[in-house]
Records
---
Amino acid sequence: LRTLRHFDVWALDPYPNPKPPMNGAAYGTTYVPPKFPGPDIRTEAEKGELKLYTGNCHCGAVMLALKSKPLSEVFVMEDDCSICVRNANLLIYPENTHIAIHGSEHLTGYVFGQRTYEHRFCSICGVSVCIKPLDPGEEITKDWPSERRKELMETLKTTTINIRILQGVDVRDVKEVKIERDNEMSSVPPLYTVD
């Protein structure tokens, strides 16, 4: 449904009938995610306040570690931009220093619209892993208000992570915030169309 244009997925009743949600694990061997091969990225001082999350794409070629407050205390966003809706992204915005990525050579990027973000996904299995902000350059930003340029500089210090790839995270436990941009980004077309 998310690939249908102008379809309001948030208007759906997630459980329209009295059946409980499907338990895929009941149908056989459960998926066992690969273990992050790197060390714990938290310092000893951070271990008391920050939790270590690990995650990966489906095939395991790209793995990451993230140090963060518990996700129930972190701003989590689901916005209505045209690609995030299609990927069902639930996003957090940690600083680059709070993330370690293993297998980044398997990440492929996709840039569209205003060319300020590169959506990175696994080149093998296609899972959306993260979004890297890009500096669009002086030619584009010269007419931006100073506050927007300042915001860009702060954004460049972060990497947006799709929490759906993190192990042990129940998305029902996060305080999800839906952001509607008044169609600012939801109507931005890709660089091509497929008929």
Note: Confidence is low (pLDDT under 50) at residues 183-188, 191-195.
---
Amino acid sequence: MSIRAALTPCLEAFENLIKYTETTEYDKKDEVPKFSWTIQLDRLRNWASNVGALELGNASLDHLLRDPPRRASLRQIRDLIPKILGRIEKLLKEVTDDDVSDVEDDYEELFDDPETPLQGLFDCVQSHIGCLEQHATLIPGSKTADALTRSSVMNNAMLTDARQSALADVESGDKNGGSTTGGS
């Protein structure tokens, strides 16, 4: 399954959940309020935008990961992303089905002692989106990876400048009698 094909129903499930939280049937507003779900939807949309998950053609994540030569890790990411998106979609549908009590058995190992099954589902969704964000840093050409590369290059340049400045200070101290402390 393509990443784009897995992402589309996941986003639809998220949008349905947001609509559901606005109804009177959603009686769990105290457990997980609408804005918490909205934040997670925004995180998923940002991830999709940064990696090109909804793009078509050469700009798409599917194209970027279609046949990564000598990069087994990218093949694993390509195979893993649709699975993660499918899990998120399933979790979101569990919430709108309004029968979250039986889901605890399916995702018991993922729960971090939530107060309620709904909070556990929310924690799982939040965690899965975090996994997608972490994988984005490994995808060459993604905005996330490019930003990290630019940041790393800038940090290295600043360190190099600082080292050169420190060396220049040491050298100028050597030319002034070998002492940089100013005492004699």
Note: Confidence is low (pLDDT under 50) at residues 145-155.
---
Amino acid sequence: MPPRALSPSLNERAFVLSALRSSLRQSGRSLSALRPYDLIFPGSHGSVHLISGSTTLIHAHTTSILSLPSSNNFSEGTFSVSISLSPQLSPNNTPGPPSQLETTLQAHLEAALQRPSILALDALCLSAGQSAWAVTLTIHILAADGGLEDACLAAGVASLLHARMAASEVVGREVRVFEEREREGGALPLVGGAVASVGVGIFGEEGEEVVVLDPDAGEEDLVEARIAVVADEGGEVRRIRLGGGGAVDARVVLGVVKGAGEQAAERARWVRERVREDLEKRKGTGQEERRAIGDR
């Protein structure tokens, strides 16, 4: 859904707030309900489509190539994240400097995945000062109706869990990389398990707040404040970000963090399980392929 060209009117704000105070949303969801996600694994390892309802479509892909170790540490590989918005999402998405939305999404993903790194960077190094894996997570946003921070993170984590590094061996100063049909690759070295986030919109003035989880694009235009909670699959809250500028009672924030953290942890576990299911389906096919090559 393209960004709104005009700010919501006072009448629209009053109407939506009145409906929310009556626990009514245009989508029909309850105030605490998240939109269901579906993950599709269409091709090679690390390629993921995330669909949310009929309006959000995100493609995430993870690649790893042999490169030089990090310039900051010769015993570590590198991990980077990039985001692109489809021109179909908005006519404003044209080549050039990143938009405000891209900057916000980039900051959210970097904070959730890179500070600290979700990958063990030292495990990506094959030969200190000589060669290491450079892992890149690329996220393409094709269509959206709000909740992009959460959807991009879920798609990105699914892609990282699903991706495989090629098998390799180091002999002296030489590094040999095997094709998948020769030797099965391994999972990326994740640290601390999967993570996910849940965004929360706060409506109304301080003391009369209405809390809405996973606001859609129309609701996001009307919030007084926003809270994003990142948690891992074990239930530990990793990060809390407040935005929007509105004043929020501290007790409301504490309640939001608890509830949103639990839902984020549940979503992280769901992402891991969906990835595990697809990898199990692929396992038999890969073994048969390698066995056929060995018999030749």
Note: Residues 23 and 30 are 7 Å apart (CA to CA).
